[in-house]
Amino acid sequence: MFFEIACFNLESCLIAQKAGAHRIELCENYKAGGITPSENLIIDARKNLQIPLFVMIRPRGGNFIYSDAEFQKMKLEIQFCKQNKCDGIVFGILNSENKVDKIRCKELIELAKPMRCTFHRAFDEIENPDEALEDVISCGFSRILTSGKQKTVTQGCALIQQLITIANRRIIIILGGGIRSSNISEIKEKINAAEFHSSAIISGETADETEIKKLLATL
User: Fold this and answer.
1) Coil vs helix vs strand at 195
2) What is the pLDDT of residue 72?
3) Which domain holds residue 197?
4) Do 153 and 119 meet the contact criterion of CB atoms below 8 Å apart?
5) pLDDT for residue 37
6) Strand pairing category for 116-119 and 195-198
7) Containing H/E element for 84?
8) What would the DSSP string read from start to end of 152-193?
9) Does 52 sit behind a cis peptide bond, omega within 30 degrees of 0 on the bond before it?
10) Domain of 134: which CATH number?
11) Which residues in the chain come in under a pLDDT of 50?
């Protein structure tokens, strides 16, 4: 089993690595749910991390339907991550019908190679998750981060297990949304998952080392 920690600052990255996290999802702006981190933060994180670094590519908070200008900005951000030897990126683009924008997603995945790509919780905004799953797979994503269309994984357990079954190892489903050491054992009893995602934030916007160790101890 694998644990990814969402980090909103360099301090969190260093704490997560020290505590034994397997991968970092780097972003900024905790209140917005994460947006693309600054270039300086990406550089500092890459310089200080030996574990895999995936960077959020999201030009702003709010919905996941982007203008042409925002799409071009995402391209530049991906190129920067590639130049600085990041291991992967995390993004999701929807079209005007609130479905996976397969054309734009495929273009960014091609641009990102050889970095791996995770489709983030934009997935949970889509009405038909079974259709969205096939769309994301067809685009070439390696992973989907989801809380099962609910606020938390605990509430979305049934759908997540359904998605894992349908995916049948064609893509990795990462569980993310309200995962804490206090509920992860219960979640694992209900869902046969390989990867988990948490900010491990107890207060403020910085990961808590003790919380990360408690989470990892359950794996």
Assistant:
1) strand
2) 98
3) 2-217
4) no
5) 98
6) unpaired
7) none
8) STTTTHHHHHHHHHHHTTSSEEEEESS--TTTHHHHHHH---
9) no
10) 3.20.20.380
11) none
Phi, psi of 97 (to 5 degrees): -90, 5
Token pair for 190: 């209900």
- Alpha-carbon gap, residue 163 to 130, rounded angstroms: 7
Q: Can you point out the beta strands (E) in the chain?
A: 2-7, 23-26, 53-56, 88-91, 116-119, 143-146, 172-176, 195-198
For residue 41, give both structure tokens: 């933060």
Number of H helices, E strands in the chain: 8, 8
CB 48 within 8 A of CB 29: no
Number of other CB atoms surrounding residue 133 within 10 Å:
24
* Distance, CA of 133 to CA of 124 (rounded, Å): 11
Token pair recorded at residue 14: 């260093």
Distance, CA of 140 to CA of 51 (rounded, Å)? 23
As a whole number of angstroms, the distance between CA 137 and CA 144 comes to 9
Q: Count how many domains the chain has.
A: 1
**Residue 11 CB neighbour total at 10 angstroms:** 12
